[in-house]
Design brief:
This protein has 293 residues and is α/β, with parallel strands linked by helices. It has 13 helices and seven strands. Strand 4, helix 9 and strand 5 form a beta-alpha-beta unit. The N and C termini lie far apart (52 Å).
Amino acid sequence: MTAQALSADATPKVKVKPVTSWKDYKKDLIKAGVLEAAANRGIKIRAINLNSNANANSDGNESESEEGLIASKIIHFQRHGQGYHNLLGDTVRSFGHGFDIDDPDPAVNPFVKPEIQDSPLTQKGREEARAQRPKAAMLKPEVVIVSPLHRAIQTAQISFADHLENDIDFIAHEGCREQLGLLTCNKAHPLSSTKADFPSVDFSLCTFGEEDTLWNAHPTVRELPVDESDRAYAFLTDFIMERPEKEIAVVCHSAWLFSVCNVVIDCEGDEFLETWFGTGEIRSLKLSYYKNQ
């Protein structure tokens, strides 16, 4: 980052933008037409919040309607711990400078700096993941699904270490990775090197290759909200719903999770579920899949 970008006295290159509140971000998604796209999908997904229950493994049957029900799953969603891109963004803001996340200039937008590709966990991020291990150990996922980005895999292996030691499968899936395009922090390292770094993870479903063809499909713009929600919907219906396991952990990313909880599934106005996940945070939901009438 340039000295000018860090100087408290320098004039920012772009208009300062504060961190977007979750309600404002939801309004932006609605303006982008995501709700109209969701209304035309063949399957409706409803969520029951299990976090307020004494036992997060409760099946929530007391709130579930059988009419039109296709399947139900208990999903433990986790956001990765603090990554170096999160730290870099916080550092820039601490000098009094906001930044436009869509600005392609790495002198202004820290998330597009080439050095931050596939941002791993910071020490704080590792500690956040480790702090979740006691909670994760009480959960009973039959499989752990991870985004193929390093910070998500690292978080999963730390938080769900007890499950890894008990030979629970860890499977990487591109459907739950963070927004594609523009932001270098979300561009994957070559698949061969990631496989070498995490030999205990099954990458057989990943196709992004050595150059991250998914991210490179639109390298100058972020993935559109409708496209992101379509990808998340396909992940939850074509993959998660069809799996034999009844209880699954999914370790992934904040913007993806926000899209899921505000657009893809119906959280029935539960603000706890609709707000941004904290770094490292785990939330347990029961997802019920219905034919969309």
